[in-house]
Amino acid sequence: MRRKEKHEERRKEEIKGFLMAAIWGILLGIAVVFAAMAMRVAAAPQRVQQEEQEQKEQEQSIQQEAEEEQKQEAEVLIFSQGTEEKSESEEQKQEEKQKDRQPKKVLYLTFDDGPSAENTDKVLDVLKEKNVKATFFVIGEYVRKNPETAKRIAKEGHAIGIHCDVHDYSLLYRSVDSYIEDFEKASETVYQVTGVRTRLFRFPGGSVNAYNKGVREDIIAEMEKRGYIYFDWNASLEDASGGEKTPEELVRNAVDTALGRKKVVLLAHDRVEATALALEALIEAFPDYRMEVLTVDVEPVQF
Ligand SMILES: [Zn+2]
Q1: Which homologous superfamily is 105-292 in?
Q2: How close is the Cα of 202 to the center of ligand 1, in Å?
Q3: How much distance in Å is there from the Cα of 135 to the middle of ligand 1?
Q4: pTM of this prediction exceeds 0.85
Q5: CA 279, 284, 289: angle at the middle one, nearest 5?
Q6: Cβ 269 vs Cβ 111: under 8 Å
Q7: What does the pLDDT look like over 48-67, one tens digit per residue?
Q8: Which residue of 42, 125, 269, 280 has the fewest C-beta atoms within 10 A of its own C-beta?
Q9: pLDDT confidence band for 91 (50 / 70 / 90)
Q10: How far is ligand 1, taken at its centre, from the CA of residue 195, in Å?
Q11: Spans of all domains in the chain
């Protein structure tokens, strides 16, 4: 009986011990969990810092990438500029080739006695459409009357030369002084209206005419001394000499008088209506010619 009690006592002790151990174990477990949480909390600011650092690094690398990209773009730009330069020189070569292929014959389309309010704009319209540049020997009096048309001539890339200020043969060819006085007035008008200072001129009636016999040589000498260059012509539409002519006749006259020369300076008058009407067909009647403006570098055609 006593032994049984003792045994009972020991069992109880054992159970108690086991329970205590279990409780301690649980408590320890809880403590460990808490400790781990505490450590995590403690480590949080560090982690934030780390994240910030990582983000910074990422941003830096993005920036670096962007810089790298920019650099590459710049290189591409430099490269493409290089190729542009290359293609420019290619273009030059092509242009030269095209020049070789261009007609060897040249035609200088020249218009006297304008600008006219009624007709010069029609002439300019056709020239623009056909992409042809011409030379206009203008009259000062009409430049003052039609300044907008005169400006248009210059603006659209045509050459301007002086014809005279007032188309009056007897006054012009009275003396060298009389000629020079008229010329300077026209020259000043052209400059004031168009901004063009020209050294090109054409004598009214041409350098050899019925009115300048006595003064011709002296006028030419004086004008050349002043640096001016005169241009006569070697083909003509014959559009100024009396009688109404049809556009077809004018084209035929031009072709017949040009005689297929290598260099043609063709006389026309932009104030004549039939000339404006004939212009498109006229340009097409010279397919083997390139059409250019007169310049101081062109060897002049003189009578
Ligand atoms: Zn004239």
Answers
A1: Glycoside hydrolase/deacetylase (3.20.20.370)
A2: 8
A3: 14
A4: no
A5: 110
A6: yes
A7: 455 556 555 655 655 555 55
A8: 42
A9: confident
A10: 22
A11: 1-101, 105-292
